[in-house]
Amino acid sequence: MSETFSMKKLNMIEAINDALDVMMARDANIVVMGEDVGYFGGVFRATAGLQKKYGRTRVFDTPISECGIIGVAVGMGAYGLRPVPEIQFADYIYPGLDQLVSEAARLRYRSAGEYTAPITVRSPFGGGIFGGQTHSQSPEALFTHVAGLKTVIPSTPHDAKGLLIAAIEDNDPVIFFEPKRIYNGPFNGYYDKPVEPWSRHKDGAVPEGYYRIPLGKARVVREGEAMTVLAYGTMVHVAEAVLADKGVDAEIIDLRTLVPLDIETIEASVKKTGKCLIVHEATRTGGFGAELSALVQEHCFYHLEAPIERVTGFDTPYPHSLEWAYFPGPVRIGEAVDRLLKA
Amino acid sequence: MTDAGVLRMTEGARSNLPPLQLHVPEPKFRPGDAVDYSHLVIPAAGAQARPDEGCAASETHPLCLDLVRVLGDDHRAVGPWDPKLDPETLRRMLRLMALTRAFDDRMYRGQRQGKTSFYMKCTGEEATSIAPAMALASDDMVFPSYRQQGILIARGYPMVDMINQIYSNKADKLKGRQLPIMYSAREASFFSISGNLATQYPQAVGWAMASAIKGDTRIAAAWLGEGSTAEGDFHSAMTFAAVYNAPVVFNVVNNQWAISSFSGFAGAERTTFAARAIGYGIAGLRVDGNDPLAVYAATRWAANRARANGGPTLIEHFTYRAEGHSTSDDPGQYRSQAERTEWPLGDPINRLARHLEALGEWTPEAHAAMDLELAEQVKAAAKAAEGNGVLGHGLHHPFRTLFEDVFEELPWHLKEQSEQAIRERRIKWPEWKED
Ligand SMILES: Cc1ncc(C[n+]2csc(CCOP(=O)(O)OP(=O)(O)O)c2C)c(N)n1
Ligand SMILES: [Mg+2]
Q1: pTM, 2 dp
Q2: Which of A4, A11, A163, B126 has the fewest CB atoms within 10 Å, measured from its CB?
Q3: Residue A129 C-alpha to ligand 2 middle, in angstroms?
Q4: Is residue B11 pLDDT above 90, yes or no?
Q5: DSSP state of A102
Q6: Is B316 a pocket residue for ligand 1 (Cβ < 6 Å)?
Q7: 3-class SS of residue A98
Q8: ipTM above 0.85?
């Protein structure tokens, strides 16, 4: 990250808001739209104050039509704007899927670069808030599977701002999933203990003004020798807490961008540690962990000292009352860590 | 003109033309504003024609821009739409609406007391589910949104079961899987509620088409909010219903707000929601949604029409969301609090009570006694449900149920995951008994 002079303490929502603010001030082609994002500032307040500052033709509410939101974003992008639509919950992105998958993702390719879709679709995702199956999903693997879409998931306010700025500046369509469970603080999976606020966490310090974190660059959260842990979003903090609890000298890598993926950092780490644990909250079958596991196998097979471990959500819809039975928390991660240590 | 460079150059070249402007709707009132509803055209009760149920769809189209009203300012029922219900039925309607409100009040408080995660009231909109439920046959299939708890109450679904679902407890018939209020009640011909807006609309059409394929006599009815009419599913449903003349009643509950977005973001600045029927060539009615008699009459009309193979009807219920969107919402942030008090169509419970009083069939004393009795009834049901547990206090369905019903049968990977979940539970709570 570039040198910065002044930092401020922000939670993740404020950091996202700040990124939008910085970019809207720099580039008059950026427009923000979505359900309830205008006057109200979004159901999670991520766009609070922006309409007042930039006016109603740059920050506006939309009809409740995800298909419409993404479809008009593609059209605006074709004109030359840089739309940053919000989908209120990732669980509600599906009506917009055709516009994302068949249109935004393929526009550059099918027009041989004549048209592009420089849009960043922001959407809160993930569970742990007793939101039931329609406010908890982690559908990132549906998007990483689509050629032509980039998928970005921050895990700290600092990264959220820098990555969102890079996503907005990117000339290709980006899905920017925001782990809503850590909007206010780095929830670490110990759900019966209070979550420390971002203001007390080192990564709650966010540089003022413009800075970018390049897409495709992972972050080494912690260096270590015992094993490599690959995670993103909320699960970075859960993995960090569990490994600290168990006193394991693990190397924890926050992927930050799933597509394009920082394979170099992953490869170097697994070759060093010889063991790999993959953690995500999404369902297991066909999840992004399967892709990671295949890649690690392809790139590091002769360095592996144990089978690759995947810790994930279960292959069921996200439940309501049994949320913590579903969530890949400390016990599930702990068992996998023990298996790797014993191997 | 395929060269992007050429396209860009034309921007400045037409400078003699006026610049285009984007229109972004803005509601009339925001927090702190005085509210004046004089712009709303509220026709007199009884003034609307009632076409024959078998009429051409186009004959209803003037009513799409009108407002069917039965209860006048003097609390009398007037005009051709008066369903002429007997006092017994009217009192039942009143009681069901009041029970729905009492239920909402208690469940809202339960959420605030931490007994569950979430709740949604339908305050002010009770007529839009109670009156249709009474006007439909009890086995007509309903596809509601999340704000039609009144239908279950009207159909006599056990209140304790509703609360078990809200508390997500060990007696919850949905096994704690769904967000509170996302009921499913097959025995009440009540479809499983989805959190994804408008999905129930084409499903209702499909059910109605199936009923027609099989030569059944039952029809379907669906509900959604005005904001949800923007979803593609709404329009797919209209098209299919029109194409196949499906026996379905579409209800659009226009309560003016979709979370913080006013109805202008669903197109209300241009025309009414009932007017969508005109474009699809189906019958449409626009009714005073706070007038339970008008709602009843409109539903009856549409149901009779559908049952006689007259096809679909779209009914817009013009009403007002008197409270927040849900327990997660604070409407004071985006709309004027005076809207509720100034709303010119009043309150459905109040209006029906005044009507019964005008008939000499009801008194304020009887009403007060009824409210007390209903509050007690809800309280007793809540107590009984609490005996089965509240959210987050251990009294939930067994862990293995998490894996049931994903498929009819448990595949190997879910068996494995089920064992994993149970092992995790033993590690976390070694003192727990197996179930
Ligand atoms: C597909 C989808 N998009 C967005 C949402 C989030 N959401 C839930 S309720 C709601 C507002 C709906 O308003 P309206 O249709 O008017 O119904 P009302 O709440 O007023 O009854 C929104 C945007 C959702 N549940 N599903
Ligand atoms: Mg509404």
Answers
A1: 0.96
A2: A4
A3: 24
A4: no
A5: I
A6: no
A7: helix
A8: yes
Percent with pLDDT over 70 in chain A: 99
Instruction: Check if B199 has its Cβ closer than 6 Å to any atom of ligand 1.
Output: no
> Tokens 């996503």, residue?
A167
Query: Which spans in B168-282 are helix H?
Result: 200-213, 232-244, 276-280
In the residue annotation, B426 being an active-site residue is answered as no
User: Measured between alpha carbons, how far is A266 from A57 in angstroms, rounded to an integer?
Assistant: 43
Average pLDDT taken over every residue of chain B:
95
Contacting B residues, span 151-210, partner chain A, CB-CB under 8 Å: 168-169, 172, 176-180, 182, 194-197
Two structure tokens written together for B77: 């029922």
Span A56-82, average pLDDT? 98
The residue in chain B having the minimum alpha-carbon distance to the alpha carbon of residue A134 is B195
The average pLDDT across A210-234 equals 98
d(CA A98, CA A74): 12
Q: Which helix (H) or strand (E) holds A70?
A: helix A66-79
The environment of the single-atom ion ligand 2, i.e. residues with CB closer than 5 A, is B 225-227, 255, 258
CA of B28 to the centre of ligand 2 (A): 16
Mean pLDDT of all residues in A232-237: 98
CA B100 centroid distance within chain: 13
Q: Is B412 helix (H, G, I), strand (E, B) or coil?
A: helix
A61 touches chain B (CB under 8 A): yes
Please tell me the predicted confidence (pLDDT) of residue B15.
79
Q: Does A193 touch chain B (CB under 8 A)?
A: no
Say what the pLDDT of residue B433 is.
74
- Ligand 2 mean position, distance from CA A92 (Å): 17
Give the model's pLDDT for residue A4.
53
Give the model's pLDDT for residue A207: 97
Band (pLDDT 50/70/90 cuts) for residue B431 is confident
Please work out, in degrees rounded to the nearest 5, the angle formed at the alpha carbon of residue A318 by the alpha carbons of A313 and A324. Answer: 65
DSSP result, A117-156: ---EEEEEE---SS-GGGS----HHHHHTSTT-EEE---S
pLDDT in tens, B200-220: 999 999 999 999 999 999 999
User: Is position A135 annotated as part of the catalytic site?
Assistant: yes
State if residue B289 touches ligand 1 by the CB under 6 angstroms criterion.
Answer: no
Q: Which residue has the tokens 């509900």?
A: B223
Residue ID of nearest Cα to ligand 1 atom 17: B225
Q: How large is the average pLDDT for residues B400-416?
A: 97
Q: How far apart are CA B214 and CA B351, in angstroms?
A: 41
The answer to whether the CB of B259 is under 6 A from ligand 1 is yes
For residue A318, what is the DSSP state? P
Ligand 1 centroid distance, CA of A77 (Å): 26
Query: Which residue shows structure tokens 């759900």?
Result: A191
Among A residues 119-158, those touching chain B with beta carbons less than 8 Å apart: 130-135
Q: Which residues of A touch B413 (CB under 8 A)?
A: 284-285, 315
Residue B270 known to be catalytic: no
pLDDT tens track for B253-263: 999 999 999 99
Ligand with the closest atom to the CA of B230: 1
3-class secondary structure per residue, B332-393: HHCCCCHHHHHCCCCCHHHHHHHHHHHCCCCCHHHHHHHHHHHHHHHHHHHHHHHCCCCCCC
Q: State residue B3's pLDDT score.
A: 42
For the segment A77-103, the average pLDDT, to the nearest whole number, is 98
Stretch (H or E) spanning A293: helix A288-300
B196 CA closest ligand 1 atom index: 26
Per-residue confidence at B434, pLDDT binned at 50, 70, 90? Answer: low
- Of the residues B334, B340, B367, B425, only one is catalytic, namely B334
Amino acid at B416: E
Q: Which amino acid, one-letter code, is at B263? A: S
